[in-house]
Amino acid sequence: MSESKAQNRAGGRSDPIGAARRRKTGLDCLRARPIPAGPETAPAEPMETTRLFARINRQSAPLFGLVALGTAAVASSVVGAPALATWAVFIGCAAGLVYALPIAYLDKGEADKTAAAWRRKFVLTTAFCGSAWACLVVALLRSEEPDALAFAMLVMLLVSTALSLLAATIPEAFVAGVLPMIVGVILAYSSRLQSSALPVAAMAIGVIGYFLVVVRRLRAAAARNVSLQAEKDSLIAELEQAKLNSDEARRRAESANLAKSRFLATMSHELRTPLNAILGFSEVMKGELFGPHGVPAYKEYCNDIHVSGQHLLMLINEILDLSRVEAGRYELKEESVSLPRLVDDCIRLLSMRAKSRNLTIVEALDNDLPDIWADERAVRQVTLNLLTNAIKFTPQGGSIAIKVGWTGSGGQYLSIRDSGPGIPAEEIPVVLSSFGRGSLAHKNAEEGSGLGLPIVKGLVELHGGQFRLTSKVRQGTEAVVIFPSERVMDATPARDPDAAEPRARGRSRRHDAAAAA
Description:
The protein is of the alpha+beta class and 517 residues long. The protein folds into three domains: 200 residues; 63 residues; 183 residues, Histidine kinase-like ATPase, C-terminal domain (Heat Shock Protein 90, 2-Layer Sandwich), CATH 3.30.565.10. The protein is 65% helix and 10% strand. The protein is built from 15 helices and eight strands. A hairpin with a 5-residue loop joins strand 4 and strand 5.
């Protein structure tokens, strides 16, 4: 019931168009994102790995062309012009396929993306590209130049490394890409099994096998990443849906709260008008202003009607006050208020009720306290509610101690302690809630609405203060209202900043009902 909370509630009610716009935006985002609703509807792994393969190859296609150009420039000094020209045409077609096929795949709609068919296309394209590089490797191995063998091994390792990275998500593509080079090496050395270069070729093929193992591990890592991404997307979708549900529930709650406030505002007039007539006529009949009743019991009935009407009117007023406080519609009419004087007026107002129960009221009011900036009607209602509760729950012959003074932080406090039955610790949150009443209250006190303490708490918090309720069974209850130092209008006297307990000074007065009698 803080001021900020009230403002938030009011803001939510006053902007239904903005709330509807936010809900529509959230739904549009949810529809636009291709996120699965749960693990059972997660996207198939082949589709995701194929899409990842296409993206990687599309981005690396320009680099592939630059590598081919650099290799052709170096190979021109080792391989003959006719063989190099044939390879250049071959590798140019391969580079075009490597670049065009991923673009065609990514540009097509989701309905056209059949994972198995596109994976076969990518495997064949990689095989074609590997065949182009195999042609260069074979040409280098058949060259008579002394550096041709080393350059051929370098090309094989370079192509194998590149393919292990580019085709990691589709291991079949890696195998299709390096297999032509392996076959080319075997064919090139099949007629020279005793050649000294054969171990080098075997080592190159062994390195390709090592890269195949690396590719399989990269494939497993990519699959894990795809699974984690799908799980993350699913969680995001659930969070977005939960947020939409929460916003909708909040909107409905705010609408219901607004409807409740309007209903209470309307019913207050509709109920008070006939109730005031009932109270007025019952009082006239109870006082026998127009003559005595023919039957004495009628006078008792009129008195019961009048008392019941007053109780109903009090209940209506408390419900309306609590409703305004909770809805943030209670407007404080702040002015300069003397807390000791106001408390003294409330004590005089309820002194006859205390005397009727033979209660002793002990006052300790600091008359030197400066005024506070507060709503006098609200502070008076807080004081009357607490005093009424103390008188109601204190047994015959008990005592009530009332203190007003400084707090350790420079504010002002009001403390009311009674010697009643007390409240169990676990029931304090209950009595502070709307319509909440403790178990001992049902046994030892007259019936009430259970709204007095929630109204007190709400009014004190509207002033930025604190309300504390402490109690022990069979020892009594103490209610403390603390107003912050910001509401004190005059300079405060020197005080101990480490003081933990409120302290009062000034006038002390004792109302002893028995002595007064």
